[in-house]
Amino acid sequence: MAEDLSIQKGTKKEQYESLIPQIKGLIEGETNWVANLANIAAALKEQFNWWWVGFYMIENEELVLAPFQGPVACTRIKKGRGVCGASWEQSKTLIVDDVEKFPGHIACSSASKSEIVVPIYKDNLIIGVLDVDSEHLSHFDQVDKFYLNQIVALLK
Ligand code: SME
User: Fold this and answer.
1) Which segments of the chain have a pLDDT < 50?
2) For the chain, domain boundaries
3) Residue 130 in contact with residue 55, Cβ under 8 Å?
4) Which of 61, 75, 81, 127 could form a disulfide with 65 if both were Cys (CB 3.0 to 4.6 A apart)?
């Protein structure tokens, strides 16, 4: 396992392409989910310095806060609620350019302006989501969707 992350400058695509093999190295051979989620959140925060990045995992029909980097966040989200709950319900990646315009958005932090939520699957069943929040409007696009889906697919 690598001890230090090598931080890439350049286009977003270049940043993801440098980060993904390093994330693979970080989680390779480690079977503990909390350890792997924690290192993925830390690696993404270090590379992109997003406002908030982390995981919510499904437990007893709710999303429950899991490893993250950023300010404290709400701990439980019901199916269909907020962007995370909607991504779970619809089983798809959601990109929200302006969270204030998203019906039912859960404002864990008033600084958060845009968001991407990516479902995580195990054996074809959704088990949680990766949530990223930005303090800038319209911060996420199809490039983030493509690479963040690759990153959550590394979780087995
Ligand atoms: N804003 C999210 C809730 C989670 S926090 O932002 C960390 C939502 O609407 O699902």
Assistant:
1) none
2) 12-153
3) yes
4) 75
Whole-model pTM above 0.85?
yes
Integer Cα distance of 82 and 6 in angstroms: 34
CA of 102 to the centre of ligand 1 (A): 11
End-to-end Cα separation, the chain, in angstroms: 17
For the chain, what's the residue count? 156
Task: For residues 142 and 146, give the distance between their C-alpha atoms in angstroms, rounded to a whole number.
Answer: 6
State pLDDT tens for residues 54-83: 999 999 999 999 999 999 999 999 999 999
Contacts of the segment 120-123: beta carbons below 8 A, 24+ positions apart: 120/55, 120/57, 120/152, 120/155, 121/152, 121/153, 122/155, 122/156
**Ligand 1 nearest atom to the CA of residue 117, by list position:** 10
Q: Which CATH class is domain 12-153?
A: alpha beta
Pocket test for ligand 1, best of 53, 84, 90 (most atoms within 8 A of CB): 84
Q: How far is the CA of 107 from the centre of ligand 1 (A)?
A: 6
